[in-house]
What we know:
By secondary structure, the protein is mostly helical. The chain folds into two domains: 84 residues, Multidrug-efflux Transporter Regulator, Chain: A, Domain 2; 60 residues. It is built from six helices and no strands. The longest helix has 34 residues. The chain is elongated, with a radius of gyration of 29 Å. The N terminus is likely disordered.
Amino acid sequence: MTAHVTQQVASHPGDPGAGRATPDAAPGLMGIGALARRAGVAPSAIRYYESLGLLPAPPRAGGRPAGPRRYDASALDWLALIALARGAGFTMAETRELVAGFAPGTVPAERWRALAARKLAEVDALLARATRMRAVLRAALACGCRRLEDCGHLLAAPPDRPAGTARPRPAPRRAAPGAPGRDR
Length: 184
Protein backbone atom coordinates (compact mmCIF):
# COMPACT_ATOMS: atom_id res chain seq x y z
CA MET A 1 0.00 0.00 0.00
CA THR A 2 1.11 3.54 -0.60
CA ALA A 3 2.51 5.31 2.47
CA HIS A 4 0.46 8.29 3.59
CA VAL A 5 0.96 10.95 6.26
CA THR A 6 -2.53 10.19 7.53
CA GLN A 7 -2.01 6.56 8.39
CA GLN A 8 -3.92 4.18 10.59
CA VAL A 9 -2.22 2.18 13.35
CA ALA A 10 -3.11 -1.13 11.67
CA SER A 11 -3.98 -0.65 8.03
CA HIS A 12 -4.74 -4.26 7.18
CA PRO A 13 -8.21 -5.80 7.56
CA GLY A 14 -8.32 -8.47 10.20
CA ASP A 15 -5.46 -6.99 12.24
CA PRO A 16 -6.17 -6.04 15.84
CA GLY A 17 -6.70 -2.34 16.12
CA ALA A 18 -7.53 -1.88 12.44
CA GLY A 19 -9.11 1.48 11.88
CA ARG A 20 -7.89 3.29 14.99
CA ALA A 21 -6.44 6.58 13.95
CA THR A 22 -3.09 7.89 15.05
CA PRO A 23 -3.02 11.44 16.43
CA ASP A 24 -1.77 12.80 13.08
CA ALA A 25 -4.69 11.23 11.15
CA ALA A 26 -7.09 14.20 11.44
CA PRO A 27 -5.80 16.33 8.54
CA GLY A 28 -6.58 15.03 5.06
CA LEU A 29 -9.40 12.70 6.05
CA MET A 30 -12.50 12.39 3.89
CA GLY A 31 -16.05 11.28 4.47
CA ILE A 32 -17.61 8.21 2.92
CA GLY A 33 -19.25 10.23 0.13
CA ALA A 34 -15.96 11.79 -0.94
CA LEU A 35 -14.20 8.42 -0.81
CA ALA A 36 -17.00 6.82 -2.84
CA ARG A 37 -16.77 9.54 -5.53
CA ARG A 38 -12.99 9.29 -5.76
CA ALA A 39 -13.08 5.48 -5.93
CA GLY A 40 -16.07 5.28 -8.28
CA VAL A 41 -18.14 3.07 -5.98
CA ALA A 42 -21.33 3.56 -3.99
CA PRO A 43 -21.08 4.42 -0.28
CA SER A 44 -23.10 1.25 0.41
CA ALA A 45 -20.33 -0.79 -1.28
CA ILE A 46 -17.77 0.74 1.08
CA ARG A 47 -19.89 -0.17 4.11
CA TYR A 48 -20.37 -3.67 2.69
CA TYR A 49 -16.61 -4.14 2.20
CA GLU A 50 -16.06 -2.99 5.79
CA SER A 51 -18.65 -5.49 7.06
CA LEU A 52 -16.84 -8.30 5.21
CA GLY A 53 -13.46 -7.28 6.62
CA LEU A 54 -12.09 -6.29 3.20
CA LEU A 55 -11.64 -2.66 4.15
CA PRO A 56 -10.34 -1.52 7.54
CA ALA A 57 -12.96 0.12 9.71
CA PRO A 58 -12.19 3.85 9.65
CA PRO A 59 -11.98 6.15 12.63
CA ARG A 60 -15.14 8.09 13.42
CA ALA A 61 -15.33 11.88 13.61
CA GLY A 62 -14.87 13.09 17.17
CA GLY A 63 -14.02 9.55 18.28
CA ARG A 64 -17.74 8.80 18.75
CA PRO A 65 -18.88 5.28 17.76
CA ALA A 66 -21.84 6.76 15.86
CA GLY A 67 -19.84 9.63 14.35
CA PRO A 68 -19.32 9.90 10.60
CA ARG A 69 -16.64 7.71 9.08
CA ARG A 70 -13.38 9.50 8.25
CA TYR A 71 -11.06 7.83 5.72
CA ASP A 72 -7.47 8.52 4.84
CA ALA A 73 -6.09 8.10 1.32
CA SER A 74 -5.00 4.49 2.01
CA ALA A 75 -8.69 3.52 1.74
CA LEU A 76 -8.42 4.32 -1.98
CA ASP A 77 -5.62 1.76 -2.26
CA TRP A 78 -7.76 -0.88 -0.54
CA LEU A 79 -10.71 -0.13 -2.82
CA ALA A 80 -8.44 -0.36 -5.88
CA LEU A 81 -7.19 -3.76 -4.67
CA ILE A 82 -10.75 -4.97 -4.13
CA ALA A 83 -11.71 -3.78 -7.63
CA LEU A 84 -8.67 -5.56 -9.10
CA ALA A 85 -9.62 -8.81 -7.34
CA ARG A 86 -13.24 -8.52 -8.48
CA GLY A 87 -12.10 -7.80 -12.04
CA ALA A 88 -10.00 -10.98 -11.94
CA GLY A 89 -13.11 -12.95 -10.97
CA PHE A 90 -12.36 -13.48 -7.30
CA THR A 91 -15.37 -13.94 -5.03
CA MET A 92 -15.73 -11.81 -1.92
CA ALA A 93 -14.56 -14.74 0.22
CA GLU A 94 -11.49 -15.20 -2.00
CA THR A 95 -10.82 -11.47 -1.88
CA ARG A 96 -10.98 -11.56 1.92
CA GLU A 97 -8.53 -14.48 1.89
CA LEU A 98 -6.30 -12.40 -0.35
CA VAL A 99 -6.21 -9.25 1.79
CA ALA A 100 -7.07 -10.17 5.38
CA GLY A 101 -4.79 -11.13 8.19
CA PHE A 102 -1.49 -9.74 6.98
CA ALA A 103 0.72 -8.05 9.54
CA PRO A 104 2.17 -4.75 8.30
CA GLY A 105 5.23 -5.40 6.15
CA THR A 106 4.26 -9.01 5.31
CA VAL A 107 4.95 -10.08 1.73
CA PRO A 108 1.68 -11.59 0.45
CA ALA A 109 3.17 -13.20 -2.68
CA GLU A 110 2.86 -16.84 -1.56
CA ARG A 111 -0.84 -16.58 -0.67
CA TRP A 112 -1.56 -14.60 -3.81
CA ARG A 113 0.21 -17.16 -6.02
CA ALA A 114 -1.85 -20.02 -4.57
CA LEU A 115 -5.12 -18.13 -5.04
CA ALA A 116 -4.14 -17.01 -8.54
CA ALA A 117 -3.21 -20.56 -9.58
CA ARG A 118 -6.55 -21.86 -8.30
CA LYS A 119 -8.46 -19.07 -10.07
CA LEU A 120 -6.49 -19.63 -13.29
CA ALA A 121 -7.56 -23.29 -13.31
CA GLU A 122 -11.20 -22.14 -12.97
CA VAL A 123 -10.76 -19.68 -15.83
CA ASP A 124 -9.19 -22.37 -18.04
CA ALA A 125 -12.17 -24.67 -17.38
CA LEU A 126 -14.59 -21.83 -18.22
CA LEU A 127 -12.74 -21.10 -21.45
CA ALA A 128 -12.81 -24.78 -22.47
CA ARG A 129 -16.56 -24.89 -21.81
CA ALA A 130 -17.10 -21.67 -23.76
CA THR A 131 -15.13 -23.10 -26.69
CA ARG A 132 -17.35 -26.21 -26.70
CA MET A 133 -20.46 -24.03 -26.49
CA ARG A 134 -19.31 -21.93 -29.45
CA ALA A 135 -18.65 -25.04 -31.54
CA VAL A 136 -22.09 -26.48 -30.81
CA LEU A 137 -23.83 -23.18 -31.61
CA ARG A 138 -21.89 -22.73 -34.87
CA ALA A 139 -22.66 -26.29 -35.93
CA ALA A 140 -26.34 -25.77 -35.11
CA LEU A 141 -26.45 -22.55 -37.14
CA ALA A 142 -24.79 -24.26 -40.12
CA CYS A 143 -27.09 -27.29 -39.94
CA GLY A 144 -29.69 -27.73 -42.64
CA CYS A 145 -31.80 -30.24 -40.72
CA ARG A 146 -35.42 -29.35 -40.12
CA ARG A 147 -35.59 -31.14 -36.75
CA LEU A 148 -32.98 -31.49 -34.03
CA GLU A 149 -33.59 -35.25 -33.94
CA ASP A 150 -32.42 -35.46 -37.58
CA CYS A 151 -29.15 -33.68 -36.91
CA GLY A 152 -26.74 -36.57 -36.40
CA HIS A 153 -23.56 -34.52 -36.21
CA LEU A 154 -24.92 -32.50 -33.28
CA LEU A 155 -26.38 -35.46 -31.42
CA ALA A 156 -23.32 -37.68 -31.96
CA ALA A 157 -20.88 -35.27 -30.31
CA PRO A 158 -19.97 -36.37 -26.79
CA PRO A 159 -20.16 -33.58 -24.15
CA ASP A 160 -16.36 -33.22 -24.03
CA ARG A 161 -16.00 -32.98 -27.80
CA PRO A 162 -17.18 -30.03 -29.94
CA ALA A 163 -20.12 -30.67 -32.23
CA GLY A 164 -19.13 -31.48 -35.76
CA THR A 165 -16.01 -33.34 -34.65
CA ALA A 166 -17.70 -36.58 -33.65
CA ARG A 167 -17.29 -39.57 -35.91
CA PRO A 168 -20.37 -39.77 -38.10
CA ARG A 169 -22.84 -42.43 -37.15
CA PRO A 170 -23.07 -45.20 -39.73
CA ALA A 171 -26.24 -45.27 -41.82
CA PRO A 172 -28.75 -47.92 -40.73
CA ARG A 173 -28.13 -51.22 -42.46
CA ARG A 174 -30.81 -52.38 -44.79
CA ALA A 175 -31.57 -55.99 -45.41
CA ALA A 176 -30.71 -57.32 -48.85
CA PRO A 177 -33.61 -57.89 -51.24
CA GLY A 178 -35.29 -61.16 -50.49
CA ALA A 179 -33.65 -61.46 -47.06
CA PRO A 180 -35.81 -62.37 -44.06
CA GLY A 181 -37.35 -59.34 -42.36
CA ARG A 182 -37.61 -57.33 -45.55
CA ASP A 183 -40.99 -55.80 -46.29
CA ARG A 184 -42.84 -57.78 -48.92
